[in-house]
Amino acid sequence: xxxxxxxxxxxxxxxxxxxxxxxxxxxxxxxxxxxxxxxxxxxxxxxxxxxxxxxxxxxxxxxxxxxxxxxxxxxxxxxxxxxxxxxxxxxxxxxxxxxxxxxxxxxxxxxxxxxxxxxxxxxxxxxxxxxxxxxxxxxxxxxxxxxxxxxxxxxxxxxxxxxxxxxxxxxxxxxxxxxxxxxxxxxxxxxxxxxxxxxxxxxxxxxxxxxxxxxxxxxxxxxxxxxxxxxxxxxxxxxxxxxxxxxxxx
Length: 250
Hints:
The chain is 17% helix and 30% strand. It has helices at 16-23, 30-37, 41-45, 111-114, 117-134; strands at residues 25-28, 67-76, 81-83, 139-149, 169-178, 180-182, 185-189, 195-198, 205-210, 214-218, 221-223, 229-239.
């Protein structure tokens, strides 16, 4: 019996800012992403091969082998995307009860990805969306390439459960999915029972979240055929500086 999936509530590109203001999140098709970011589908597809070269995540506390990832950090202004020296990814326990409180040194994203014109265009567009909502500024941006696979029979895109990331904005691009079932996206309002659930299936479709207003999670994936996987790109934007481990006073 075919798997039943709920279609994502797509937002027309000209209603993005208003939708974010009203409900704290929006979902865009790849056509809308390309229109708004000024990139072609072909330019985005040219980045996809790098997801086949992600090293294992060495920090999974549940003992799983289902996650591979790379990480990079940038300072993004209206005129420039500036890569910063490779740094650890850190979250407090209050945001990530499973993996918070420790410095996680993931392998860096490949230069041939972050030097692409389409890559810079994506980051500058996301920064522009954030600035329209909160004022023009430098956005301290982290990017994570993920592959969740079914090596262990089940893969967990969000092993920490429903969560916030401790930033201002979170962009989740679905890069692709192969040979799996599950992977349903769930978004919940922080201050009410309101929530939505749907499954992203279109490559380069986007879930954009106001991290101060909503929490989110993705349900586990299971294999429909051998070697199943789900690839995503998660980009976070934070005002004022990167989320770093507090300096201990002596």
